[in-house]
Every structure is written in C-alpha cells, then in structure tokens.
Amino acid sequence: TQLLEQSPQFLSIQEGENLTVYCNSSSVFSSLQWYRQEPGEGPVLLVTVVTGGEVKKLKRLTFQFGDARKDSSLHITAAQPGDTGLYLCAGARNRDDKIIFGKGTRLHILP
Amino acid sequence: KAGVTQTPRYLIKTRGQQVTLSCSPISGHRSVSWYQQTPGQGLQFLFEYFSETQRNKGNFPGRFSGRQFSNSRSEMNVSTLELGDSALYLCASSPGHSGGNQPQHFGDGTRLSIL
Fold it and tell me: Is B45 on the interface with A (CB under 8 A)?
C-alpha cells in the first residue's frame, strides 16, 4: 500500500495549457515537499508546505497543502516544455519519521 | 558550494557479487539518506545516517547495509546481489535529521545493473 498516492501517473499536454497534479494520503503529514526529477539527475526540491491550507507560489507553479494536511496539489499555469519531468511529492508524518515518497507524476509538455 | 557527489555513476555487476556505493554530502550537512528508485516501486527509503548513527531504516533485507564516517561521508553496501537489485541508488543530504521539514539535497545517483 502506497502511503502517498500521486495522480495522474502520466500527463502529456500542449505547451500553454494549465494542469494540476495531486498527492493524496489517508495519513496526516507534518509537512509535504514537492520535487522535480529530470532524466539522469536526482530530484530537486521545489517547495515545502507546512501549514494546513497553505498556498505557495513559485513563478507559474502553485502548491497547496490541504486543510487536514493529508493532501497537496501542484498547479502549473501556461505549461512550457521546460516543465517536463517527474514530479514527486514526499512527506514525513512526524519529526522523527523517515521521509516517504509518492511514485510521481510523469509530465510531458509538447511544444 | 559543491553538491552531493555519488560515485560511481554507473556500475555493472553479476548475481551473487557485492557492491559498495559512496556518497559525499554537501559540506556541513550531517544527515545522509539512501533511496532505491525503480520504475515499478518509485523512490523507496533504505536508511538514514546522522552523526555516524543509523536513525531510520526502511523495509529492505539485511543484504543492504550502510555506514557513515566522521566527515559525514557515507557508503552503502549490497551483498549477494540479485537481479531485482538493479536500480538507481540515490543519496540525499540535509543539515539535520531528515524528518519533518528538512529539505533533502540529492546527488545524481549510481545506476546499478545486475546481469
């Protein structure tokens, strides 16, 4: 059983379109992180959300942490080919717990 | 500031052999975590070391082991290799214990292939 479920698994859209990917759990997390991984490289941290209901923006990317701290979403506005990659969510249920990763959403933006 | 360095980048082994992978964290980072990444299972946590002590362990068999040195560099060892051990092994460092809000800085991984 995957503790963090990401959806969709794959997404291929045209440049300029908007999209949202999701990270869901039945457990409460003290924080959630989003990473992007490109082929041949390790994941790179995009953002950490800590407070329930928190919204963070990173240029065209908007991250939201659910009120109950069980889910998160990533919304990309006007997607560009450079957004292509594997988007991973990760979290720890408490301060001493290991960090758990979802299986990721593989995003492909067509020029 | 140099990032996390993993060596080697690629490795080919045969079943039954053993392998040691190395990770040099970002200078000043005391926590090193190891992950196995496969297409089917995604990123799975192996273990975390903090100040030379194992702080957390994932659900992997005892063939997978690790250690951390006083300079925070870490190694992981896999003995009696199996075909299913073929994966990308990623190391991540963070300033403190990796639970909670600590951001993890990943290396580019070691791609291990078992023949």
Answer: yes
What tens digit of pLDDT does each residue of A11-56 get? 999 999 999 999 999 999 988 999 999 998 999 999 999 999 999 9
Q: Is the pLDDT of residue A1 over 60?
A: no
**Contact in structure between B108 and B6 (CB atoms under 8 Å):** yes
Are the beta carbons of B23 and B69 closer than 8 angstroms?
no
H/E segment holding residue A33: strand A31-37
What's the CA gap between B65 and B45, in Å, rounded? Answer: 12
Q: Which two tokens stand for residue B51?
A: 């100040």
What's residue B108's pLDDT?
96
Q: Which of B9, B104, B110, B111 to mutate to test the interface with A (most CBs of A within 10 A)?
A: B104
Distances (CA, A) of A96 to A29, A83, B91: 12, 33, 19
